[in-house]
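Quick one - inputs below.
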Amino acid sequence: MPELPEVEVTRLSLIERVRGARIEGVRIGKPLRWPLGCPPESLLGRRVLDLTRRGKYLWFALDPRSGDDAGAGGLLMHLGMSGSLSFSAQATPPGPWDHFDLSTDRGVLRLTDPRRFGAVVWSCGPHEGAAGKLLAGLGVEPLEAGFTGALLHERLRRRRLAIKTALLAGDVVVGVGNIYASEALFIAGIDPRTRCSRLSAARCERLAEAIRGVLTRAVQAGGSTLRDFRDAHGASGAFQLEAGVYGREGLPCGRCAAPVRRIVQAQRSTWFCAQCQRR
DNA sequence: ATGGGTACCTGTCTGC
DNA sequence: TGCAGACAGGTACCCA
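Output:
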């Protein structure tokens, strides 16, 4: 479900409500990808100071509990493949997929995740401990000023894997998942099988522009909803209406009418137009 | 160092 | 209708 736009839409829909909320209870359901990493009781009484995002990770910064020498710290959360967050004023009985609840004085933050690839991990800081390790190797943020075609070109020039696979790896640029990798390469007119090292500076410029553009539009549209994405208020996204190639195998390319092709790269499906996208 | 494959887990859809 | 198999938006880890 969640790529960068979905995570960002989730963050935006939550931030006003969770900022300042005081944690009053923690409920853990079935195990997620990793254990929480702290006794749940140690979270009680802390307030959420801020909610930020790094790639597809969310960071709930918490204040230190008075008289507690454990310091500030926070919770690093990932929605995995099927996770979503909701915030409701009234607690409802947890369903079979609700694996983490944070009860606060403002309402209940709930992580619903059928596949349980998601995670909530305690860390002393975003650059320390478990969080630091998880965030360490991440690439540049595509919606920040530092993301340019020149930077993309520099980071890709010595890599020989296919550009689609490199975009998914997240060590060059973060937040581009399987949907937006296909979409961005379609917009930029680049064949997903092209080796990174063969991309010219000009094509990297076009690719950076395509990534920035498609992610920005997806955030504005409220996140993609190719399955069942909902933001924390239950509003659904609308990006599927404008998918150019994703999930459109056999359907005509909107630009040239050639049938969209599906191939598999690194065990993931890739959709592209062999006419419009060149090596 | 790089890149490929595997693993985690469960729901949904397709075809026999 | 039942069942097997493919597939699903992510990413850490292991190995060549």
